[in-house]
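Hi C.,

You asked whether I'd gotten around to modeling the 530-residue construct. I have! Everything is below, sequence then structure, no commentary in between.
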Amino acid sequence: MFEGVIASLLNKYLGRYIENLDSQNLNVSILSGNVELKDLELKPEALFELNLPVEVKSGYVGRIKLVIPWTGLYSLPVIVTVEDVYVLAGPVSDRPYDANKEKAKQLALKKKQLEEVEQSSTQSDANEDKGFFEKLTETIVNNIQIHIENIHVRYEDTVTSPGTPFAFGITLENLSAETTDSKWYVTHLDANAPTIYKLVSLRNLGVYWNASLKYKKLVRSKLDSRIWRDIMKSSIKSKEIFKENFQYIVPPVSATTKMTLHKVENYVVPKLLVNFHCSEIDLDVSRQQYLNAIELSKSMQQMQVSERYSKFSPNAPIKGHVKQWWLFAYNSVVMDRIRPYSWRSIIYYNKEKARYKNLYKEKMSRPENTELALTLEKMEAEEYLTVASIIIAREQAKIEFMRERPERIKKKKKQKGWFWSWFSSDSESEDEIELSKNRKDWFSQLSEEDKKQLYVGIKYDGEKRHEKRPVNYVKHKIDFYLSKTMIRLFNAGKTVLDMDASDLFIALENRPDYSAFRYLTTFSISIYNT
């Protein structure tokens, strides 16, 4: 049933970021419809998707709560609550090389890249009809309620400018998404209501950058205790850490987004109408913040290069350790440019690649075998198997598997999902060969009975054909309105530029059937000082 699918998805995505996630208790909680996880720690490699030489020095999630009404899944709200998320990040190069952390990060990156390749090459059966995902999206939007409170993500850098550390971060007090009535009062709409109203409220989202700090003003000095969590939490409202006021680039802003979704298209009003309104957004940048950003960009590029050879680094100053640094240079060149291309390395690489291919082919025959999956994951973590090597080995395994098991091959029509019509034109369907009963997406995990229940629940009729829409029909419309914005540049405490823009209005209209977009922008601007 759907419980197993949701449990699998939560384990998959939470497991990427949460340290020591208790999968067994999570599965039991999902079956009861009431999931509550407390005092969670983030993995050091939780920021791997940034693909930058940074890591989580310490990360904490106070509470994740998920209420799923299984008895009324299509009519009652699913409530998601996330509270107290505090992340302290920093550059990888400010600590000695750790082989385990580096292997975990590289494995996370490989998994992400491999998943992207798999997703681009295979599509769910549900994607064959645009209407399915439209109905599914409507049901999710109508039912889900999201509450996020107290978020603080902070990056502290002692490497880029060792004499003057700096820190920047993002703070958020509250973010909520709730279903409302036509007058935007929070309520619960009947599942049969023809129109869905969603109100998204954002409160006090700010971005700060403290360009010059003393070491004792850094939160990392308190990581040996839980005090750092209290510091991160209290600073969201106090706007200071260790009596050092935040130097805001974007002072805390609040905004609302009103979304109207018409379930039935009458070709008169847009099916989706989004109205974003914000009273004021300011941008304040000092010369020192700007220089810090330039230095950080250069430092990141240098750290990305040095990260590759960090395992050979002597972690000592050059003066007095010349021999170790010459050995570092020797190992970096030899291990990166010479030994990988020796006959011994080439033979070993081909042997391991062939072993991976055979294991992957065996896994396609026995997809439920967890021992095989763990063995493959361990091999994927090894440095000698690159993402390209793994993809090639998998494709070779699939070809051999199809030759050996032709009964597992089926043809299907390949089409783009409806949401891609926002960014690309509809392409003609074409035949695609796929391996049956070897699908990894959530839809393929459902039985035929579950799929029928899902179709009934979201009111999807697979036999219904889409009517041809009018040429001028606007299906999606997004309006962005900003009452006032100020851009100020400072140098040594003095204002260099003061620019004021008001009544900024941006409208985006989309006619997906004809791949047509229309933009409209209006605003007034004034420059006071230069």
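If it helps when you're writing up: The radius of gyration is 27 Å.

Thanks,
B.
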